[in-house]
Amino acid sequence: METLHLTHESINQSLQVKPSAVAVGFFDGVHKGHQAVIQKAKEKADELGIQSAVMTFDPHPSVVLKKGKINAHYITPLEEKEQVLASMGIDYMFVVKFDKSLAQLSPQEFVDSFFVGLGVQHVVAGFDFTFGHKGKGTMEILPELSHGRFTQSVIAKVEKEEDKISSTRIRQVLDEGRVEEAKTLLGRPYSIKGKVIEGDKRGRTIGFHTANMEIDHDYYLPKIGVYAVRVIHQGTSYPAMANLGVKPTFEGDREPNVEVHIFDFDEDLYDQMIVVEFHLMVREEKRFSGVEELKGQLVDDEAQIRHFFSDR
Length: 312
Known about the structure:
Elements: E1 2-6, E2 20-24, H1 32-48, E3 51-58, H2 61-65, H3 78-87, E4 92-97, H4 100-103, H5 107-116, E5 120-126, E6 130-131, E7 137-138, H6 142-146, E8 151-155, E9 159-160, E10 163-164, H7 167-175, H8 179-186, E11 190-197, E12 211-215, E13 225-233, E14 236-245, E15 257-262, E16 273-283, H9 291-310
Parallel strand pairs: 1-4, 2-3, 2-5, 3-4, 5-8
Antiparallel strand pairs: 6-7, 9-10, 11-12, 11-16, 12-15, 13-14, 13-16, 14-15
Helix pairs in contact: 7-8
């Protein structure tokens, strides 16, 4: 997959891009609803004998349009989104910089630059996708704006248990620690990626050696608590228990961090990248009266998580 980072000003005739069928949207999470849009673009690309493409935006429009908002947190930060799309067999990923100049484009200007200017022959989007200044461009008026230069498909909402699958819904279930439901909506476990850094080494003194993660702050983190997780390291998956929280039994941290205890594993992971997949929330984080009470709870947590993974 080839990734192109674009601005309104960067699209010109010298840009070497083959004709494509493009799925367009922000696609945070690349969940099952998004996958329906992307799969339709792939099918049209195959039908027309052209490239498949996904057009997304960075950063999230809210960072630009909402006063005082400095950054956003994502279910799939851009790097992870790129990996998911590559695994789906997409040919092009168009990353459009969302800035004030983009937000000022009229719907027609947006179409002329980002669809016609990129040689798009077919556009696929969800029923609620909008574009152009103040979102005045809709899929309903896209045929009029295309002037016959490309065709389009609109994907109806994808539902699970009579509720629309959306990034907002996934954030809600993550807020409640319902990571199993997030997995159902995403079509894969919710995961985060980060580097293992040196911690306070307190875990090894109580029999639970942990790897502390340096988390990219772009991630939308689930509810604070203890989780059954799988740690992916160099292509191998290991069952583990994770604490996402601020360690209130000790001095406590201002920001939530993730530390994982990988079962039956004794390798040095410092400065190495790992992926943590969240499979089940075991309990909420709480303050214990002392180290012994904490150790007893961790033994119970490990037994419960080992049992959870025993038939999976």
